[in-house]
Amino acid sequence: MTTGLAAPTTPVDVEAPGLPPLARGPVLGIAAAFVFLELAVAARYGFHRDELYFLACARHMAWGYVDQPPFVPAVAWLATHVFGTTVVGLRLLPALSGAAAVVLTALMARELGGGRQAQSLAALAAATSPQVLAASHLLSTTAFDLFFWAVITFVLLRLLRTADVRLWLVLGAAAGVGLLNKLNVAFLLAAVVFGLLVGRRGRLLLSPWAAAGAGVTLLLWAPNIVWNAQHDWAAVAMLRSLHHENGGLGAVIGFIPSQALVVGPVLIVFWLAGLRRLLRSGPGRPLGLAYLFLLVLFTLSGAKAYYLAGMYFALFAGGGVWAEDRLAHKQPPGRLRGWVALMVAGALVAIPLTLPVLPESLLPKGSWEGNINKDLSATVGWPRFVQQVARVAGTLPPDQRADLVVFAGDYGAAGAVDLYGARYGLPHAISGHNSYWWWGPAGAKDGATTIAVDLPRSYLLTIFSQVTPAGTVTSPGGVWTEERGDPIWICRGQKVTWPAAWPAARYYG
């Protein structure tokens, strides 16, 4: 394994001299199986609440939104124009991005000197990790964030091995596009700088190519920065709201233990050994230090458990090299069967908790069980929800239905009405939640009868003189969802115009 200066290479030079052969067959086979599994279950249940929101964002294309940069809404726009508004079409690119991360994990193992066994095990670890399985199932910022972290860490590892400083341009481009997907990439960049400085590779940061790479990052990210400046730094306000809502001592205490669930309990020894391998490796040491930096930072800040998930691809790569060395030193040499069986067993346990393989009727009915993986329940019951709203609307006189307003308390409910409501004669919903607030109460006629969902009566009475209960939201088979039991109101006697009421309607969370 070369640690000094080497002939310049490119990140696509998979047959680079001095590296073991690429295990194309096993690695591509694992990636293909991963995509097959993701797409095989993609159409079960239905759209996720966030996907409904992203579809709404795609109808309001911009360089930014309250809760994410423009990348995922742009993907939603592309998917709907190519495949139509289908669940599988929307989830194809997330599945492919997960498979690409699997391949990049194998390539990182190769950069660390790992042969066929190391690359195969690293790829299998990535493909069977619960967080990767779950995130790649949905159109989300997390799915693509994992991919961009894998790209950045792979390019950095190649740069560290070859000292080809031109790779800073590639890393800068990946970081810039990654920041257009999720601001989480900024933490990775800070950790990379820390790892290089503490790992005694700081001279790489002094290269003009590093400055050029930083320039590329800022150039690509600039439109989103401008958008935020024009919208009262909405992303900053959103981050503060999320930290206030999800932070605290419990989040701090639980962050490190939660990593076992994110990565997968059966992979604990594998990624811990991978971390040790990185810290003892010349090219890998800055990445190992970057992981420790982020582990401390996210623990102290009470971050969400999955914020660190993208860093485990590098640790899986190190774990693959460690496992290969361990197998080679056995007498007689060990085989992969044990590791493969362990990882596959871990995936079989994780799949029912991460992917929609069970019948809807077997999903949790209680909130405690439902919170184990809220993403599964968040894909259930949206057409039924819109039908309930439509039934309430059907009880109104024709003159009230003509100018009806649907006011939703969260973007999932609003997105569902926007997607399914037209078939029942419902108007587009208005909402004060996140970016919906910035789109305003467009089309809402003052004095019109309003159906409100998931909003407190006390708040609605500040706008209307009459707020009458019209039912509660139910779910198919009593499955627990965040909307189950939410009140549905009929509101009349508007006291405040929509433009006047709108500033107080804003809710970030």
List keywords for this structure.
disordered N terminus; 509 residues; mainly alpha; 59% helix; five-stranded mixed β-sheet; 24 helices; globular
Characterize the structure shown.
The chain has 509 residues and is mainly α. It has two domains: 24-354, no CATH class; 382-505, no CATH class. Helix content is 59%, strand content 5%. The protein is built from 24 helices and five strands. The chain has helices spanning 24-40, 49-58, 71-83, 87-111, 116-128, 130-135, 141-162, 167-179, 185-198, 208-230, 234-246, 249-263, 268-280, 285-301, 312-328, 337-354, 367-370, 374-377, 382-394, 398-402, 411-420, 435-439, 457-460, 498-505, and strands at 405-408, 430-431, 450-453, 464-472, 487-494. The chain has a five-stranded mixed β-sheet. Helix 21 links the parallel strand 1 (405-408) and strand 2. Helix 1 runs parallel beside helix 5, helix 2 packs across helix 21 (411-420) and helix 12 crosses helix 14. The longest helix is centred in the N-terminal third of the chain and has 25 residues, at 87-111.
Strand numbers in spatial order across the main sheet: 2-1-3-5-4
What is the ordering of alpha helices and beta strands?
HHHHHHHHHHHHHHHHHHHHEHEHEHEEH
Q: How many strands appear in the DSSP assignment?
A: 5
Structural class: mainly alpha
Largest pleated sheet: 5 strands, mixed
Q: What count of helical segments does DSSP give? A: 24
Q: Which descriptor suits the 3D outline?
A: globular
Helix content: 55-70%
Radius of gyration: 25 Å
Distance between the termini: 48 Å
Domain tally = 2
